[in-house]
Design goal:
The protein is mainly alpha-helical. It contains five helices and no strands. Helix content is 71%, strand content 0%.
Length: 70
């Protein structure tokens, strides 16, 4: 990815994160101006961010205490 394109994707990703999830589709419609590749890149980052935030919602000792004891 060219540095200019990376910067564009990064800026849109950050701007999308600043909006409520239900506002993001309309924002991306306007911000991407029909550039489906750009939108796909930003949506991929948003999806990864959502998954990462829920990755460790509970401490390990609650999920699998038997793995932490002898």
């Amino acid at each position: 990815m060219r540095p200019e394109r990376y910067k564009q994707v990064d800026e849109l990703f950050i701007a999308a994160l600043e909006r409520q999830p239900e506002e993001r589709a309309a924002f991306l419609d306007q911000a991407c101006s029909g550039d489906s590749d750009l939108r796909r890149e930003v949506e991929t980052l948003l999806s990864a961010d959502d998954q990462a935030q829920s990755f460790i919602e509970s401490p390990a000792y609650q999920l699998a205490p038997e793995l932490l004891t002898d």
